[in-house]
Amino acid sequence: MNVLLSIITINYNNKTGLEKTMASVLHQTYNPIEYIIIDGGSTDGSVEVIKQHKDHLAYWVSEPDKGVYHAMNKGIKQAKGDYLLFLNSGDHFYSKTSLELFKPFLLQDENIDILYGHIEVIASKKFIKTYPNKLNFSYFYEDTLPHPASLIKKSCFNKMVYDETLKIVSDWKFFMLGICKYKFTYKPLNKVIATFYHNGVSSTSPELVQQEREQVLEETFFFRSKIEKLLKKIKTQLIKVQKF
């Protein structure tokens, strides 16, 4: 018996991106999937696109929200799947069989909390971003996991949901706390799962990203954060010395 996957798409006034995202979900070979769309009250024709495919959706709504993480939390409340994956408007699965790649792992071990793969990044140039087999605080101090390529067990959201007070890094906070504090189990897939377009708010507001990350680290991992910052400084100094 296959595991039910909930795919959640957040959209606001991105009709063209939404069409691309929806097509990639609806053409997945994996079954069963429930598809959920949370629209923030779009006025650009997005709602008409959603209505065209409403028979293939488990749930959809179009109404004003308080931001992307509020919208994601709304999607979580509606999801009935064993695992959730967030594929936001504009991004899409790498191939029609992307979700199928998770199947062997899902059938082997139902106790895995997070399954994650790699992503294709479309920016000024195209490249594949890979993720490590081992996750720890040192890794999350520098990076995060990719939502479009990560299956998250529904029960994980009983521990916490996305912090709606943050504008950009709540997904990073979720993964970091999940792995480092709540000890979520995880398994790398080492396959490219999704295509991510590097043009969102986090791409254009690096100062706010850094500010919010430091805020979270101070609030949740004060001493470990200080140690990592010191180690990073020492490493930078050593690199400078080696150049002379």
Task: Describe what is shown at a glance.
With 244 residues, the chain is α/β, with parallel strands linked by helices. The protein has nine helices and nine strands.
Explain what you see.
- The structure is a single chain.
- This protein is α/β, with parallel strands linked by helices and 244 residues long.
- It has one domain: Spore Coat Polysaccharide Biosynthesis Protein SpsA, Chain A (Alpha-Beta Complex).
- Helices cover 39% and strands 22% of the residues.
- The chain has 9 helices and 9 strands.
- Strands 1, 2, 3, 4, 5, 6, 7, 8 and 9 form a 9-stranded mixed beta sheet that branches.
- Helix 1 (15-26) links the parallel strand 1 (5-11) and strand 2.
- Helix 8 crosses helix 9.
- The longest helix has 22 residues, at 222-243.
- The radius of gyration is 18 Å and the shape is globular.
CATH superfamily: Spore Coat Polysaccharide Biosynthesis Protein SpsA, Chain A
Overall pLDDT, averaged?
Answer: 90
End-to-end CA span: 62 Å
- Reported by name, the CATH topology is Spore Coat Polysaccharide Biosynthesis Protein SpsA, Chain A
Outline type: globular
CATH class: Alpha Beta
Enumerate how many helices there are, as a single number.
Answer: 9
Low-confidence stretches: none
The major pleated sheet works out as: 9 strands, mixed
Q: From the coordinates shown, what is the CATH architecture?
A: Alpha-Beta Complex
Overall domain count: 1
In sequence order, what are the helices and strands, one letter per element? EHEHEHEEHEEHEHEHHH
Radius of gyration, Cα only, in angstroms?
Answer: 18 Å
